Amino acid sequence: MSNIEVVKTFVDAWSRLDLHGIESIVSDDLFYQNIPFAAVAQLDELTAFEDSVRAMLKAGDGGMPITPIIGRAAFKRFLGIIKLFEWAKWDIKSIAADGDTVFTERLDTFGFQGGGSIAIGVIGLFEVRGGLIHGWRDYFSLSEFQSQMQQSG
Predict the structure, then answer these.
(1) CATH number for position 39
(2) Which residues are 136's β-sheet partners?
(3) Which of 96, 100, 116, 123 is least surrounded by Cβ atoms within 10 Å, i.e. has the fewest?
(4) Which of 111, 86, 89, 102 is nearest to 138 (CA)?
(5) Cβ distance 14 to 88 under 8 Å?
(6) Closest Cα partner for 82 from 113, 125, 48, 43?
(7) b or e along 24-51 (b: 16 or more beta carbons within 10 Å of the residue's beta carbon)?
(8) What is the largest CA-CA distance in the chain?
(9) pLDDT per position as a tens digit, 9-46
(10) Each residue of 76-128: pLDDT tens digit?
(11) What is the pLDDT of residues 118-129, one digit of tens each?
């Protein structure tokens, strides 16, 4: 499987909310980060911000990661977020690879249990080696995310 096919398989698993499919394609040393939160993580208000995001998501054990997720065990805990969704659709608009790095331009749409949905434009960078995702960084508009979460809540 090419590196692009690995990422397409991962994206398709997210669209099916397929926990096994998502977990099976990441490495034990996975590094995952939502980049818009990186600057927030440097602020003193991190705890208040993280609490507000978790409250918006009503995520409990899962939730939107504010700091990087490192390793398969931490990633599995993050996947608790799936219980919040009734459905998901990750639509790849563009995809390209340069060696081990795969670039995606996506529209990630999530429908929440009990109603409401969000659709966020995302640029994702994946590091793929040996058929597994070792690195995953997503870039998106934090203000767009917050606005849509407030409207869907």
Answers:
(1) 3.10.450.50
(2) 32, 126
(3) 96
(4) 102
(5) yes
(6) 113
(7) ebbbeebbbbbebbeebeeeeeeeebbe
(8) 44
(9) 999 999 999 999 999 999 999 999 988 766 554 444 44
(10) 888 888 888 899 999 999 999 999 999 999 999 999 888 888 999 999 999 99
(11) 999 999 999 999
Structure tokens at 74: 């931490």
Instruction: Give Cα 119 to chain centroid, integer Å.
Output: 13
Range of the domain at 142: 3-152
Strand order in the sheet with 85-98: 69-70, 26-34, 132-139, 117-129, 101-112, 85-98
d(CA 131, CA 18): 18
Domain count, the chain: 1
Q: Which two tokens stand for residue 1?
A: 């499987």
The C-alpha atoms of residue 55 and residue 52 are separated, in whole angstroms, by 5
Element (H, E) at 9: helix 3-15
Q: What share of the chain is helix, strand, coil (3-state, %, to 5)?
A: 40, 40, 25
Assess contact for 146 and 52: CB atoms under 8 A. no
Q: How many helices (H) and strands (E) does the chain have?
A: 6, 6
Report residue 16 as tokens. Answer: 């099916």
What is the crossing angle of helices 142-152 and 46-57, to 10°?
A: 40
